[in-house]
Amino acid sequence: MTSDTLRTGLYDTHIFLGGRMVEFGGWDMPMQYPAGILAEVKAVRTATGVFDVSHMGRLYLSGPKATEFLDWVLTGSVSSLRVGRARYCLICNEKGGVIDDTIFYRLAEDRYLLIPNAGNRLAVVAWFQSWIDEKFSPGCAMDDVTTTTGLIAFQGPATIDMIDKLADTPLSEMRPFSWAESVIQGAPIFVGRTGYTGEDGFEMLVQGDDVVKVWSVLTASGAVPCGLGARDVLRLEAGLPLHGHEIDEQTTPIEAGLDRFVRTDKEFVGSDVLKSHQESGVQRKLVGFTLPGRSAPRAGYTLSHGGEAVGAVTSGSYSPTLDTSIGMGYVLGRYVESGTTLDLDIRGRTVPVTVTELPFYTRPRRP
Amino acid sequence: MSPDDRRYTNEHEWVMADSAAPSSVVAGITDYAQDELGDIVFFELPKVGDTVTHLVKMGEVESVKAVSDLFSPVDGVVTEINEKLLDHPELVNSDPFGDGWLIKATVTEITAIDGLMSAADYDTFTAGI
């Protein structure tokens, strides 16, 4: 742990709960609590879990040119997003490589909240500032409130019934990818019906002074504290990419199968490269695969076919929800069809894996 | 506190004489090791008849987050592995010193294990990590 590792407002709470702390994206965060990763995953899939995600960035973009600016740096359409709604998309460099993925919320005609990943926050801020200075100044201001606010993810099927008992307004009526403002025990909260687990749920932006109070209300009502280990298993089961694994500056959204988050009818940073990728196709694509048993594919392991290397694993784990091992990785274009069998090298052991449609897990519809 | 009826290695394995058979030991990983690993999901163990060597890799253990090598605490020949771990590796999380044993082996010199760490020495060792 380096001395300049950042701590969230819940650091003391994590220590008190017996959280096993690790450095992640420049922050000192809980990998897991004493219940363990498997129990935490199960809580989110069957009831409720609560995560401190205050390490993720919180950036406000505002001003008469904010919409135009974001339409230039984001792959998704910004101007068409209605106030009150949120959208997932990518931030690309000029070569179409992914600087980060993000959810942004339209707060007003000319005001937005954007959530970059913890480890990319400073890179995103620098990237945005350089474009603002070059093309959108004056008229677009950026305000990074990451260290003065907290972010809590409240995820799982039981959150919907719980949230209305906890908040002053009926948040269960919120639509997916919308936001609202409410109050929990006197603490103002900004709530998005968003998440990174494959379950229904909410993410709550709170003032720094209120983060312990809101966390305590949620855990007192039965939400199980969950760490980054469970979060990683949950997002992998849901087929969601993690920057630094499935996507990075050497990978394009087209290779990652994220075409639906890229608008080809507008011009933005990297759009010419992405358009040509979409038209001419790409050499390698991200796929999901499963293998029997519980031995996990891990990042960097080689995927081969007929004795020749055809790809590499980006993420993998034993999936407690599906009770089998799962992974994602990049393979050459002719091996992406579902049902294709490839060989995975697990530290010298060769194990057959089967290419599978993503996501691995889809939550059941509520009756 | 680790149980004082057995000996320990600095690779977090334990070994004790197996009262059921002469020149025989039973071995596993410590409570400290299982706690560090977290939820264990998979073991790759040696096969019955394999020769194992003191502090040489004899297998692997995988938890949800990590994979670690398993080192033999003794020189010997494997006579039995804990078959229950194939379907229930979590036994090592819940009972590392009992039902979660890993292997049994015959050794040429049973007294060799006396040279390993005592429970008190091992606990001092882990407290300093």
General description of the model:
The complex is a heterodimer of chains A (367) and B (129). Chain A has 367 residues and is of the alpha+beta class. Chain A has 3 domains: 11-54 and 147-237, Gyrase A, domain 2 (2-Layer Sandwich), CATH 3.30.1360.120; 59-144, Aminomethyltransferase beta-barrel domains (Alpha-Beta Plaits), CATH 3.30.70; 283-367, Elongation Factor Tu (Ef-tu), domain 3. Chain A has helices spanning 11-16, 37-46, 66-73, 121-136, 159-166, 211-220, 228-237, 271-280; strands at residues 20-24, 27-32, 49-52, 59-62, 86-92, 98-108, 111-115, 141-144, 149-155, 179-184, 187-192, 201-207, 224-226, 284-291, 302-305, 308-319, 324-332, 341-346, 349-356. In chain A, helix 2 (37-46) crosses helix 7 (228-237). The model of chain A has no long low-confidence stretch (mean pLDDT 96). Chain B is of the alpha+beta class and 129 residues long. Chain B is built from 4 helices and 9 strands. Chain B has helices spanning 31-37, 84-87, 91-94, 119-127, and strands at residues 7-8, 13-17, 24-29, 40-44, 51-52, 57-63, 67-71, 76-81, 103-106. In chain B, the strands form 2 sheets. Chain B has a 6-stranded antiparallel beta sheet. In chain B, strand 2 (13-17) and strand 3 form a beta hairpin. Chain B is globular. The mean pLDDT of chain B is 95. Chains A and B meet through helix 2 of A and strand 4 of B.
CATH architecture of the largest domain in chain A: 2-Layer Sandwich
Please write the string of helix (H) and strand (E) elements of chain B: EEEHEEEEEHHEH
| % residues in beta strands of chain A | 25-35%
Q: Can you count the helices of chain A?
A: 8
Question: So, the CATH homologous superfamily of chain B?
Answer: RNA polymerase II/Efflux pump adaptor protein, barrel-sandwich hybrid domain
Query: What is the number of beta strands of chain B?
Result: 9
Annotated CATH topology of the largest domain in chain A: Gyrase A, domain 2
| Sheet/helix structural class of chain B | alpha+beta
Strand content of chain B: 25-35%
Cα distance spanning the termini of chain A: 47 Å
Instruction: Tell me, briefly, the overall form of chain B.
Output: globular
Main sheet overview of chain A = 6 strands, mixed
Strand arrangement, largest sheet of chain A? 10-11-12-9-3-13
Rg value of chain B: 13 Å
The major sheet of chain B is characterized as:
6 strands, antiparallel
Strand order of the largest sheet of chain B: 1-2-3-9-8-5
